[in-house]
């Protein structure tokens, strides 16, 4: 049933597009404002909606993984992001990776074709005035990690009243496949035997011996980096550290992180000392991104240092890595649990700006807030989600974290499960715990959706 209410959504990223689709699918008129077609942000490269600015992976599809658990809930809410993600998927083992340009273009087309969604190109500096101008009853700010200066200043002045409104993130480079020396590389998915189930591996690997690795790490440590502005304090998100920052923390840090060789034995059965993994950037396999290789090295230094990787001697980079400032709020202090602003109840926030990290996490916050706005429109009270669910756990985290630190979905955010005596003795008890927590999350979510949303 179509309603008379009208919702302004600022930002056509992952959270904004999923929120717009959810509301429009439930008969709510949406005004979707986006600035990038007027001016691209520092991390943006295309003008279409739902751009994946970092990796092209939407993470694991495994039901018993934390991201698989989150996807179950997003599917239950009718996520457009996941629907189009599956339609534009590229091979990535157990993960959902997409051809980012086709994905973004398709999202844009679907939203543009919906009769209840009006798209406007605008740099919104005053959401309240923009709401009035376009006859909107509610506003959802989903501007992501790179909110424009005008809107950032408005949020600081009207909502947060504080200055620490950022942390830093970094983007990994993408290399032209034709420029790689394939004789020095090999295809293999971690822990999965080559050719298992008759399938070709999705990941390309560049192995290093000990001396190659140590020389590479030393080059990372001594390479020139892009320095922050004088007024900016570096605040890294720990799960997305630049590879050069990892190197600073110790010679073996990268080898126990994104360059770990475990499960990547070569054709002779030997395990390399370290390994760089490459993931397909598009369906053609004409480009690969360097998994976990976010960086703040200068462009010339990236070319010099990354060409030390075996097989990269003549590598041509389609785009290089970069550092960017990510905005996020202290949600616990300034928002209610439905993510509406305490100072302005008709103003909501969703996505990375609320203190979550990751594509699906951001999109799920858009779905969560959209469902709360729909309840408001129906004159129903806001409702707390069970913390046993993935979305409920994320909301509980951002609303209770004493010191704001953005987080991905993970089992550590959820209530512990109880193991039997036999399970506690099992060597695989960690996997058992995750499986039980994921099963519980699915059951609780399915009941919750039926009871609350029908």
Provide structural commentary.
The two termini are 14 Å apart. The protein has 14 helices and 16 strands. The protein is an alpha/beta fold. It folds into two domains: 287 residues, FAD/NAD(P)-binding domain; 157 residues, Elongation Factor Tu (Ef-tu), domain 3. The strands form four sheets. A six-stranded antiparallel β-sheet has the order 10-11-12-13-9-14.
Largest sheet geometry? 6 strands, antiparallel
What percentage of the residues does DSSP assign to strands (E)? 5-15%
Named CATH architecture of the largest domain: 3-Layer(bba) Sandwich
Question: What spatial order of strands do you see in the largest sheet?
Answer: 10-11-12-13-9-14
Please give the alpha-carbon distance between the first and last residues. Answer: 14 Å
What is the N-to-C order of secondary-structure elements (H for helix, E for strand)?
EHEEHHEEHEHEHEEEEHHEEHEEHEHHHH
CATH topology of the largest domain, by name, is FAD/NAD(P)-binding domain
- State the helical fraction: 25-40%
Q: In terms of structural class, how would the helical and strand content be classed? A: alpha/beta
Structural domain count = 2
* Radius of gyration, in angstroms, nearest whole number: 22 Å
Task: Spell out the CATH superfamily of the largest domain.
Answer: FAD/NAD(P)-binding domain
Whole-number mean pLDDT? 90
Q: What coarse outline follows from CA principal-axis ratios?
A: globular
Number of helices, counting only DSSP H or I runs of 4 residues or more: 14
Oligomerization: single chain
Tally of DSSP β-strands: 16
């Amino acid at each position: 049933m179509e309603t008379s209410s009208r919702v302004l959504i600022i930002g056509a990223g992952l959270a904004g597009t999923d929120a717009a689709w959810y509301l429009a699918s439930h008969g709510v008129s949406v005004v979707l404002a986006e600035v990038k077609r007027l001016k691209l942000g520092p991390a943006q490269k295309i003008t279409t909606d739902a751009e994946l600015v970092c990796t092209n992976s939407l993470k694991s599809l495994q039901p018993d993984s934390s991201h698989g658990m989150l996807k179950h809930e997003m599917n239950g809410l009718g996520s457009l992001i996941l629907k189009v993600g599956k339609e534009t998927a590229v091979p990535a083992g157990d993960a959902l990776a997409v051809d980012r340009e086709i994905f973004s273009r398709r999202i844009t087309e679907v939203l543009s074709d919906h009769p209840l969604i009006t798209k406007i190109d605008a740099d919104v500096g005053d959401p309240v005035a923009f709401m009035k101008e376009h006859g909107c009853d509610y506003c959802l700010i989903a501007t992501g990690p790179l909110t424009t200066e005008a809107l950032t200043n408005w949020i600081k002045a009207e909502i947060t009243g504080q200055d620490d409104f950022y942390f830093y993130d970094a983007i990994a480079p993408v290399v032209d496949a034709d420029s790689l020396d394939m004789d020095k590389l090999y295809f293999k998915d971690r822990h999965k035997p080559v050719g298992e189930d008759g399938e070709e591996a999705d990941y390309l690997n560049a192995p290093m011996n000990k001396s190659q690795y140590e020389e590479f790490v030393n080059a990372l440590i001594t390479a020139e980096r892009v320095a922050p502005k004088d007024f900016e304090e570096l605040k890294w998100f720990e799960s997305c550290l630049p590879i050069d920052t990892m190197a600073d923390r110790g010679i073996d840090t990268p080898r126990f992180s994104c360059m770990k060789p475990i499960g990547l034995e070569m054709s002779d059965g030997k395990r390399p000392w370290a390994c760089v993994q490459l993931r397909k950037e598009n369906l053609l396999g004409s480009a690969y991104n360097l998994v976990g290789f976010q960086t703040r090295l200068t462009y010339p230094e990236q070319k010099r240092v990354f060409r030390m990787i075996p097989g990269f001697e003549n590598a041509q980079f389609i785009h290089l890595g970069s550092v960017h400032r990510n905005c996020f709020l202290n949600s616990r202090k300034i928002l209610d649990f439905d993510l509406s602003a305490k100072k302005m109840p008709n103003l909501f926030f969703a996505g990375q700006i609320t203190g979550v990290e990751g594509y699906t996490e951001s999109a799920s916050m858009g779905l969560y807030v959209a469902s709360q706005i729909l309840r408001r429109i129906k004159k129903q009270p806001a409702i707390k989600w069970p913390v046993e669910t993935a979305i409920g756990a994320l909301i509980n985290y951002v609303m209770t974290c004493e010191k704001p630190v953005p987080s991905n979905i993970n089992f550590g955010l959820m209530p512990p499960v109880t193991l039997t005596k036999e399970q506690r003795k099992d060597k695989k008890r960690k996997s058992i715990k995750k499986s039980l927590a994921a099963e519980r999350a699915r059951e609780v979510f399915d009941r919750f959706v039926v009871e609350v949303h029908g």
